[in-house]
Design brief:
There is one protein chain. The protein is of the alpha+beta class. It has one domain: CO dehydrogenase flavoprotein, C-terminal domain (Enolase-like, domain 1), CATH 3.30.390. Helix content is 32%, strand content 24%. It is built from four helices and six strands; from the N terminus they run H-E-E-E-E-E-E-H-H-H. A four-stranded antiparallel beta sheet has the order 3-4-5-6. It has a two-stranded antiparallel ribbon with strand order 1-2. A hairpin with a 2-residue loop joins strand 4 and strand 5. Helix 2 packs antiparallel against helix 3. It starts with a helix and ends in a 5-residue tail after the last helix. The relative contact order is 0.16. The model has no long low-confidence stretch (mean pLDDT 93).
């Protein structure tokens, strides 16, 4: 089953009450792939206000393959496909990453709860996308 089919809603999955998840199979990325996971929470062990997972494969200056997922900014973990499509096959520049940051902030569907407002979550998911790219590409964060 695809992971996108597993999650059904906040705190809900497709598992029945008598079932347990025992394995998750992941496709191996190339050794040259770079990854980053970032999470914002009130304290280190807190539930996330927002999180981003990034896998990036470059061919020279060009994005060859990119996968980006966001957590705590939608009813279920969310693949940022629109951001991936924006980047795929293009030279990765600071301007392109800024556009990816903007698109990421626009496509998430967060809620306001006790941990953060939906406006803050929208903003911070874009910031996390930018920071993840800066880190994997070795750009200084200014």
């Amino acid at each position: 089953m695809a992971l996108s089919d597993f999650f059904k809603g906040p705190g809900e999955s497709c598992l029945n009450s008598d079932e347990i998840l025992t394995d998750i199979l992941l496709e191996l990325s190339r050794p040259s792939a770079k990854t980053k996971f970032l999470k914002i929470g009130r304290v280190k062990m807190d539930l996330a206000i927002a999180s981003i997972a990034l896998l990036l494969e470059m061919e020279g200056e060009r994005c060859q393959n990119v996968c980006i997922a966001a957590g705590s900014v939608a009813p279920v973990p969310l693949r940022l496909s629109e951001v991936e499509e924006l980047l795929e096959g293009k030279p990765v520049t600071k301007e392109l990453v800024a556009e990816a940051q903007k698109v990421a902030s626009e496509i998430v569907v967060p809620i306001t709860d006790i941990r953060a407002s939906k406006e803050y979550r929208r903003h911070i998911v874009g910031v996390l996308v930018k920071r993840a790219f800066e880190d994997v590409l070795g750009w200084s964060q200014a």
